[in-house]
Amino acid sequence: MTLKRVLVLLGALVWSVAVTAVAEDFATAKEAEAMVIKAVAAIKANKAKTLEEITNKDSKWVVGDLYPVVYDLQGKVLAHGQNAKQVGKDLLELKDPDGKLFVKERVELANSKGKFWQDYKFTDPVTKKILPKQMYCEKLDAMVVCAGIYKR
């Protein structure tokens, strides 16, 4: 094997490892669904503790760009895995960059469907860019529990 071939193979290997490492920072749809299922179960077991852990960015609730958000059915944030300053705020009228009232829509979908995927745009915590996002949510009592993925 020539030195040139070894270097090409080595370069390909390094690129492959780098791409894999970056891709692992980005959540999948299955991971978002699993996060919501896990959060719903934890809230059922101990609501106050779970909402606090989510907001405090406990490592079991924030994985790369994946984190849960919990709202009441009036659009008030009960827990937020990336922005504790949002907790207690009424975000029902919050719009994405395209003017979509995504929290209002989320509450309406929770009431009409129970479990659903929703599309909107939001700031990615990894890249800090506004990206299309898909949020998976499930209604639990008077709450909606969500986790989302960014479309890259």
Report on this model:
This protein is an alpha+beta fold and 152 residues long. It contains 4 helices and 5 strands; from the N terminus they run αααββαβββ. It has helices at residues 3-23, 29-45, 47-55, 102-113; strands at 68-72, 77-80, 115-123, 130-140, 143-150. A 5-stranded antiparallel beta sheet has the order 2-1-5-4-3, sandwiched between helices. β1 and β2 (77-80) form a beta hairpin.
Indicate the topology.
Layout: H1 3-23, H2 29-45, H3 47-55, E1 68-72, E2 77-80, H4 102-113, E3 115-123, E4 130-140, E5 143-150
Antiparallel strand pairs: 1-2, 1-5, 3-4, 4-5
Helix pairs in contact: 2-3
Q: What is this structure, in a nutshell?
A:
With 152 residues, this protein is of the alpha+beta class. The chain is built from four helices and five strands, in the order H-H-H-E-E-H-E-E-E.
The strand line-up of the biggest sheet is 2-1-5-4-3
- State the end-to-end distance: 38 Å
Reading the helices and strands in chain order gives HHHEEHEEE
Main sheet properties: 5 strands, antiparallel
Structural class: alpha+beta
Mean pLDDT over the residues:
86
Radius of gyration: 18 Å
Can you give the helix content as a percent range?
25-40%
Strand content: 15-25%
Shape: globular
DSSP E strands, number: 5
Descriptive labels:
4 helices; alpha+beta; globular; 152 residues; 5 strands; five-stranded antiparallel beta sheet; disordered N terminus; 39% helix
